[in-house]
Amino acid sequence: METSLKTRILPAGAAATAAAAGVLAEGGLVAFPTETVYGLGADATNATAIAHLYQAKGRPAFNPLIAHVGDLTAARRIARFDAVAARLAEAFWPGPLTLVLPKTEGCPVAELATAGLDTVAVRVPAHPIAHDILRAFGRPVVAPSANLSGHVSPTTAEHVASDLSGRIDLIVDGGPVEVGVESTIVGCFERATLLRPGGLPRAEIERVLGHRLDQLPADAESDNGQPLAPGDGGRPLAPGMLASHYAPRTRVRLNAGSIEPGEALLAFGPLRISGVDSAAAVMNLSASGDLSEAAANLFGYLRALDTKAARAIAVMPIPGEGLGEAINDRLRRAAVGRE
Fold first, then answer.
1. Which runs of consecutive H residues, i.e. helices, occur in 26-107?
2. pLDDT in tens, 191-247
3. Short-list 155, 174, 140, CA closest to 66
4. pTM for this predicted structure
């Protein structure tokens, strides 16, 4: 893609909000912070704008996008809520939860954004800047992570600029995000199903539901990394489900028990690992072992280590409970094809 656009970067505020709404109304692309990661926004009702978004990210056109709206009332205009979906929305919105729901009759979200599915992924973000932009614009906004497709997701405006400068119209700089991993995605089908772990831990959702979330069957992902939507030609049901995703350019080695020559270290907790003194670089997601801190640091630290010209990034084991499930999910996808 040609990178001929002049990308403006504006500090968050009333002027940036008005500029963002104007760009979106004209079919342009705006990066802005949500509480999870920076999103790349386009008018969800404008297929041409969405095509430009896919082009800017280099994103596969079969991967559906999340429609962001300002509140539950707006969500009900594009998606049908049963009792379970309503309970989850009332408990966790605004917040880092995306629901995959049947489309409403006459749903205005463009088919290109839903990858031709009969469902739509919808979220009400909690970040005040995202909320202000959605309110000023007045229509749903698709906003996948504001990075080149497959690259590490952005948690600062600088990360966005390094990937997308010259490809998009505007970046609204709201400082570092709080959560640091993408939203949890739950499909509200016959039973609530976890489609992607993320910034809202599974246990909190299950507490509200009163039962465990279903899981996609193991054969829902094909050998070439495309998760299979049963009876729907193998298309992903939700964003972030491709096997290779969130990937730095440097090879990622998981569950490292020692550091090999030339490797950088992505650590977690105390540095009780052999070879650490000779590592090409060391960054610790959380020296105290705090999973919330680790999630907030994950993508920024992967990006930083990716610049160190190491032969690989060795990742210490990270517990799988709570936010650790989402962290390990992102790391596994970062490592696909690079181990």
1. 47-57, 72-76, 83-92
2. 999 999 999 999 999 999 999 999 876 555 543 344 445 444 456 777 766 666 667
3. 140
4. 0.83
